[in-house]
Amino acid sequence: MFSYYLQLGLRSLRRNPMLTALMVMAIGFGVAASMTTYSVFRATARDPIPQKSSVLFNTQVDAFGPENIEKGEPPPALTYKDATALLRAHKAKRQAIIYPVSVSVIPDDPARLPSREGAYATGSDFFPMFDVPFIQGGGWTPEDDEKHASVAVITKSANDKLFNGAQSVGKQVNLDGRLFRITGVIQDWAPQPLFFDVPNTGGFDEGASVYIPFTRAVDLQLSTNGNNNCVAEPAEGWANYLQSECIWLSLWSELPTKADVDAYRGYVTGYAAEQQRAGRFRWAPNVRVRDVMDWLDVQRVVPPESQVSLVVSLGFLVICLVNTVGLLLAKFMRRAPEIGVRRALGASRKDIYAQFLIEAGTIGVAGGILGLLLTGLGVLGVGLVFPEPIARLATLDPVLILLTLVVAIAASVVAAFYPTWRAAQVQPAWQLKSN
Question: Where is the MacB-like periplasmic core domain (predicted)?
Answer without folding.
Answer: 20-224
